Amino acid sequence: MKIGGDMPKQSTATALARRLTEAVERAGVLDTPAALAGARVRRLIGRGRLKDLISGTGLGHPAHPPMTSLVIGSFLSALLLDVLAPRSGSAAANRLTAVGIVAFAPTAITGISDWADTELSDEAVRRVGLAHASANSGALLLYVASLVNRLRGRRLRAASLGLGGALTLGLGGYLGGHLAYARGVGVNQTVFDPGPAGWTPVLDSAELVEDRLLGAHADGTPVLLLRHGGRVLAIHDRCGHRGCLLSKGDLDGTVVTCSCHGSRFDISDGTLLSGPATGDQPALECREVGGRIEVRAAP
Question: According to CATH, what is the number of the domain 200-297?
Answer without folding.
Answer: 2.102.10.10
